[in-house]
Design brief:
By secondary structure, the protein is mainly alpha-helical. The protein has a single domain, classed as Four Helix Bundle (Hemerythrin (Met), subunit A) (Up-down Bundle). The chain is built from three helices and no strands. The longest helix has 33 residues. The chain starts with a helix and ends in an 11-residue tail after the last helix. The relative contact order is 0.16. Keywords: Metal-binding, Zinc, Zinc-finger. It comes from Occultella gossypii. This is TraR/DksA C4-type zinc finger protein.
Length: 112
């Protein structure tokens, strides 16, 4: 993958993760608003998931989105430094197939 293509792919991944994070924030706000003022005993409600579970799920998804942004930022930094596509362990090139499948990869398959 050439440098321009890698930058485009990484920036698109970053934008997707930022949009996902924003959506998760809206969804969390919706869950919180829906539970305010309600006298719900969600810990003992036999009807589906609890509000606490929904909040925890949204937080886990937000953590994942933040990690994706951090991974993408690190890949963009490697690209700027000229180290993109080089395994951080052995210094050998990361295979094109691996970078196509996982553009934020910092290690070759042997060291992943």
């Amino acid at each position: 993958m050439d440098e321009d293509t890698a930058r485009e792919v990484l920036l698109a991944l970053r934008e997707e993760a930022l949009a996902r994070l924003a959506d998760l924030g809206v969804n969390r706000d919706d869950v919180v608003q829906a539970s305010q003022g309600a006298n719900i005993d969600d810990e003992h409600d036999p009807e589906g998931s609890t509000i606490a579970y929904e909040r925890a799920l949204l937080e886990a998804l937000a953590v994942s989105a933040r990690a994706r942004i951090a991974d993408t930022d690190a890949a963009l930094a490697r690209l700027a430094a000229g180290d993109y596509g080089i395994c951080e362990v052995c210094g050998e090139p990361i295979g094109a197939e691996r970078l196509a499948a996982r553009p934020v990869a910092s290690r070759c398959l042997r060291h992943s």
